[in-house]
Amino acid sequence: MRLVIVSNRVTIPDRHEKAAAGGLAVALREALETQGGLWFGWSGAVVETGAHEVRSTQRGKVSYAVTDLTEAERQSYYLGFSNRALWPNMHYRLGLTEFSRTDYTGYLAVNRRFAKALSAMLDPDDVVWIHDYHLIPMAAELRRRGVRNRIGYFHHIPWPPAEVFGALPFSATLISTLAAYDLVGLQTEIDVRNLIAGLEALCGAKRAGDRVRLGRRETKVRAFPIGIDVEAFRKLAALSVRAAPRPIKTTRESLGERQLVIGVDRLDYSKGIVQRLEAFGQFLRSHPEHSRRVGLLQIAPPSRSDVPEYAELDRQSDEVAGRLNAALGEFDWTPIRVVKKAYSRNALAGFYRRAQVGLVTPMRDGMNLVAKEYVAAQDPLDPGVLVLSRFAGAAQQLGEALIVNPYDTHEVAEAIRTALAMPKSERIRRFERLFATIASTDIAWWTRRYLAALSEIDQSDAPPVRTGPQQPPRRKQPPKLQLVGGAAPNEALAAAGAASSRSSRR
Ligand code: GDG
User: What is the rounded distance in angstroms from the CA atom of residue 144 to the CA atom of residue 111?
Assistant: First the structure.
């Protein structure tokens, strides 16, 4: 049985690459290396016009097959529908959701093209594991081409409530394409509930235990909270004490005895960076005795800067940090440092270890790996304190963190104060429980558990699929959606198509 992984982006490891420390890509690569496999997806390159060739590279037991996107595809499939419609919608941000029919059509077309290319490479007993919201309809397209293999999907970001997802045009069609998978994995039970409620409300699916029935198709829907490579991260952090990377040495020198609060996030509005800066400002205003004694270091490597909302966030975070530093800083002390670049994992591990507080306060997050990395990096004899948003998937597992509502600036400010003042015995008690949790649910556990669940599924009676997801109809008005009691007629048709003939994300 060969494992085939599909993800939006594929990075082919360098031939001489030394073992990288942890991370999702490494864990998936390890799973591929164990049993031999194929990794398929976008190369990351953009070409002017579409030659659409697939290039294959072999590394040990793993084949990498990549294809480029044209600029038009990048605009519609990646920046457009994936990142301006699905990403905000799935992070409950209806106000930021920008839907365009051209983008949606491009999204479906790239999924169709990927399915066509992959189906030519599949052997009958391959197990296919597709990742994230960019590729939701890909299994339906594979089924349309007659692919009968086991196909699983893992959704890395939140799944919103039906009323939120239902606001997206063509939501019923899109959600119904999930029925083409044998197993749909989500981060938390909340996401599982939301997705199942969405399938019931938008396309009349029926629930039976952990399965959802849509016509003759049955799909398992379960939570698989993703983990990190705890051991690798713990070692990196411990090493940073003995052999500190240069940024850590410099930070130690510049901080002196001062305490450090750390935030690490892609520069993304879902991560709550601006609200976090405001909360830190509030903390210093409410507790001026901490002035000069503590600083916030926010590492925020830019991402998706071609999307206007991200450019706006970039500007806003500079403005807020500048305003707070001007109001609260002293001639010899800058309370907030926002660094908009990426550091090595060694350096990150060292920063986490040096910080007395890990401030992880997304407005909404599928899981949030930074929360787990911060815990893994702590000194067991003198650990720091994790302050964690209740809206991060990680909060479902990490209840011993100080759990906060990121919309409540005062609450976050008070949690920073509590964390800085927490007695060592309580810090150790909380840390030990948090560490036990992340260690018993690490990335290897996650990969094993997902693949075991996928290979357990008995597929023999799965009906064939003849049709794929519908194109947007060529008319001006989008079809009406009924959120309660079933889908609007033509969406229901698509769903019923999924039902009777097995048709139908970061
Ligand atoms: C999606 C979901 C889910 C950040 N800055 C640097 C750096 N990072 C690394 C962190 C961490 C990763 O990036 C970010 O992981 P997150 O989980 O926070 O977030 P997303 O990128 O949004 O990922 C998320 C995840 O998928 C997995 O399922 O948890 O909810 O949104 O590992 O350390 N790494 C380096 N330098 C940096 O400056 N080397």
Answer: 12
